Amino acid sequence: MVAKGRVTMAQVAQQSGVSLSTVSLVLRDRPGVGPGTRRRVLKSAKDLGYIPKRPTAPYTADLTNIGMILKAEPDRVPEANKFYSRVVAGIETACRRMGTNLFYASMTVDEDSHPLELPRILVEQDSADGLLLLGVYLNEALNPVIDRRTTPIILVDAYATSGAHDAVVSDNVAGACEAVTYLISHGHRHIAFVGSHPKAHPSIQERQRGYERALGDHGITDRYSAECHIANNGEVIAATTSLLHESPEITAVFGANDDVAIGVIDAAHGMGLKVPDDLSVVGFDNIDLAERVSPSLTTMHVDKVGMGRLAVQLLVNRVEHPQSTPVRAVVCPRLIERGSVRTI
C-alpha cells in the first residue's frame, strides 16, 4: 500500500517495527543491521513508496541522525538552563538547514558536571551517526564508553580528562582576564572571584586563571575568593556574604558566570550594600537575565548560538574527514557594559 503524500523515514520505521536510526542505516546501506531486519525495512520502504530526500549542501550522506546530549542537574529541567538553551537553538538551526534528524537526550550530572548516569543514545552504537555532548565533564569512568564508540563525538563547552576530541569552547581565560582588567581600569584594586572550587568544571577553573592573570599583569597582589557551586544560588549568596564580611575592603566581584554574579548582587542587597555604589559586579556568559536584573549586569558575552552552529559544522567535518587531526574551535567573548560597575 502506497502512503499519501511524501513518505518519511518515520513512517517506514513504524511499518517495519524498528527504530528510526535502524531505518537510516538500512536506507544508507550501512552495517550494523541483521539481514532479516534489513529485508523487512527495504520491503516497507518499497511498499510505502519511500523516495530518498535529495541532499542539499552542506548535507553529508553519512550524517542523517545527530544525537545531542545535554547535561542536567538532578531535579532540574535541562531545557531551563539559560546558557545551553541558546546553544541548543544554534544546533537546531544548523540541523534544520541540513535536513538532518536531531535526537535529544539528557545526562544527569553532579554539581561539578560529572556524569551520574548514561543515556542509551551514548551507549548504543547505532543510535546516531554522531553525537554532540553539551557541558559534560568526561571523567575516567566514562572513557571506556567513549572509546568503544565508532561514531564521532563533538564536545560543546564540555571537557574530557583524556583522549583527543573535536570541541567548541569559549576562551574563558582571555575573557575572564578582560573582565577583571575592565574592573582594574575603573580604579578597583580589591577584586574578588566568586564561584570556583578545586573540583569545579574546567571552564570555571579557566576563568579563575584569567582572574589571576589580570591581577598579576597589573601587579595586584591581593586575592579574594569565595568557593561555591555555581548552580546553587543559596550557596553563592552564603559564600559571598561571608567573604564580604571577612574582607570589607572588597570593592568589586567577578562572578564565574552570570548566575553567580546575580547571586552576588542578591547577597550585596541582603547586606544593605548598593550595586554599583558600594560594590561593582561583572559576570560571564551574557544570559538573557543579565540585562533584566537591577542594576543590569556588565558581563562577557559568549556567542552561544554560534557555538551550536560550529559544533554541527565540526561534526560534518569529522564525518567527511575521519582521519583529520582534532579541531578545537574557540569562541572569543566580548565585553558588554551595563550598569553594575562604577569608577572609583
Could you list some keywords that capture this structure?
14 strands, 6-stranded mixed β-sheet, 6-stranded parallel β-sheet, elongated, 11 helices, Rossmann fold, alpha/beta, 344 residues
Polypeptide structure, described:
With 344 residues, this protein is an alpha/beta fold. It folds into 3 domains: 9-48, no CATH class; 65-170 and 305-331, 3-Layer(aba) Sandwich (Rossmann fold); 172-302, Response regulator (Rossmann fold, 3-Layer(aba) Sandwich). 38% of the residues lie in helices and 19% in strands. The protein contains 11 helices and 14 strands. It has helices at 9-16, 20-27, 35-48, 84-98, 120-123, 143-148, 172-185, 202-217, 233-246, 258-270, 304-320, and strands spanning 65-72, 101-108, 130-134, 137-138, 153-156, 159-160, 166-170, 191-196, 224-227, 252-255, 280-285, 298-301, 328-331, 334-336. It has a 6-stranded parallel beta sheet. The chain has a 6-stranded mixed beta sheet with strand order 9-8-10-11-12-14, with helices on both faces. A two-stranded parallel ribbon has the order 4-6. β8, α8 (202-217) and β9 (224-227) form a beta-alpha-beta unit. It is elongated.
Q: Could you tell me the strand content as a percent range? A: 15-25%
- How are the strands of the largest sheet arranged? 2-1-3-5-7-13
User: Counting H and I runs of at least 4 residues, what is the number of helices?
Assistant: 11
Can you tell me the CATH topology of the largest domain?
Rossmann fold
What would CATH call the class of the largest domain? Alpha Beta
Average pLDDT score:
89
Question: How many structural domains does the protein architecture include?
Answer: 3
Question: What is the makeup of the main sheet?
Answer: 6 strands, parallel
| Rg of Cα set | 24 Å
Give the class from helix and strand content and strand pairing: alpha/beta
Q: What oligomeric arrangement do these chains adopt? A: single chain
N-C termini distance: 78 Å
The total strand number stands at 14
What is the CATH architecture descriptor of the largest domain?
3-Layer(aba) Sandwich
What global shape is seen? elongated
Low-confidence region ranges: 54-59
Helix and strand element order? HHHEHEHEEHEEEHEHEHEHEEHEE
Helix fraction bin: 25-40%
